[in-house]
Design a protein that fits this description.
The chain is mainly α. The protein folds into two domains: 306 residues, no CATH class; 237 residues, no CATH class. It is built from 21 helices and two strands. The chain has a two-stranded parallel sheet with strand order 1-2. Helix 7 packs across helix 8, helix 8 packs antiparallel against helix 12 and helix 12 packs across helix 13.
Amino acid sequence: MHELIQKLIARLPLDFRVLYRQFLLRVVDLEALSIQADVTAFLGQFAGVLIMLSLVHATVTYVGYAVIADPQARFEFLLHIEHYLIATMMLVTGLFTVLSWDATFPDRRDVMVLSPLPVAPRTILLAKICANVAVLGLSVLTLNVASGVMLPLIMGAQPGPALGFFQSLPAWWFTITAATLFLYCSVLTVQGFTSLLLPRRMFLRLSAILQLAAFGLFLGVYFVQPSLTAPDAMAAPENHWILACSPSYWFFALFNQLNGSLPSQFAWIAYRAWIGLGVVIAGAASSLLLCYIHTMKKTIEEPDLVPGGSLHWMPRFGNTLNTAIAHFSMRSLVRSRQHRVALAFYLALVLGIALSIFRDERAAGAATTLSMSFLILTILMMALAVAGLRNVFSLPITLNANWVLRTTQLRPSQEYVAATRRTLQCVAVGPVLLLSGLLGLHLRPLSHVAAHLAVLALIGILLVELCLIGFYKVPFTCSYLPGKSNIQLAFWGSIIVLVVVIAPCAEFEMSALDQANKFGFMLSLLVGASVALNAYNHWQARYAVLYYEETPEELITTLGLSA
């Protein structure tokens, strides 16, 4: 089998194979990477995270099915799991598609490097599409490697499918593939026709807005849309418009139609999936072909960094160095497409959490008391905002301009670290505090909300100090080394921190809001930890040297020949 695949690959044109490999490795921007970067290890870590998520989903599905004894409740649980897995797969697809926003369309580097060569535009187009589909297909496979077998195995044992597991398995994988293709082609259609209808300069400006809007839309729909998988809820007239507008319910109905378990009165929902899939595939194909025919030459006429607007005033952030670093960071985030998308991933998570809080408050109606969920979610919002901005700081704007900062470092290193600290506090901590305050206006008593905001501010300051440990570089000026940090360890470590640390801390804060002594002890503990970490970072920064190139640690191995 392996030899047959190798022979089929060898029959492909050489230029297609070369371009496919290059585009496959350009999922991460190569110009932002260290010279010793290992992109394959970086992608492998992400695949490992998705595989673990699939194992968790399969375990939850099996345990829930085994624990629930009532047949009707068990069937409704399986329907809920079906929709959850489809919605999660569509969320992953949407985030991947927006993160690789410009990976399918020709960019400046493609035009300037490949135009003088005898390479047909259709070869470039096919190589880019195949590379993106390969990475997207790997995401689909890894996220469903366990749950994509466990759920059909259980659904096949339920009454309904004529062939049992052998009908549920291909029905599930076809549905997942169709849902992924629908969302991927939808984004390509919108982006392609926008680039065709608008001038290049205007498209670059609108493209940034579309990226942020897509992030907010995908996360907002995922967190806010209600669960209507029960037959009674689907049949309710007031829920008709939700089923008609939500693609995740379209493909949920499509799977049950293919599986033979969809009641006839809900067949119209599955028909929307078939119609939508056909429309977006045709739209994506036509927009891509027209873009490669008409817009390839336009890409070299406009810069990738869009010029700023006419308003150039920005607030000061302390001394001149603090202000310069803060202005440089904010303008880099606004004008650079890659950094804007990377930060939007974290901000979209914050927005999704805020929307879930708003949904719960709206469902409650009148003003409600401060709850544990509000404390946990606002702390999580603060952690995501600070960690997200800190991670985006590690991605460079352009490594060719680093010599400017290297030759103009006229101040000690601790002042640059202090400027980065001020930027994190103003750009990450401040907006989350403002958003949490707005969300807390509906809660009572307001004194408890104000006390929680004070605690949240101290937590933000503490998180900033934690993020600055070992960060001895100017934001956006150092090359990035994929694989240096273990993504799987960081991801599951964050989950453990959420369960083990944030929840007990929120419970302790909840009990301390009515006890002055306990609340004062908590504040003093947070202040003391922040001051201690600030002193430690300041002392370490005095002897630190700013660096601009990430390099892997050198490992010295011995032969073990000594006695």
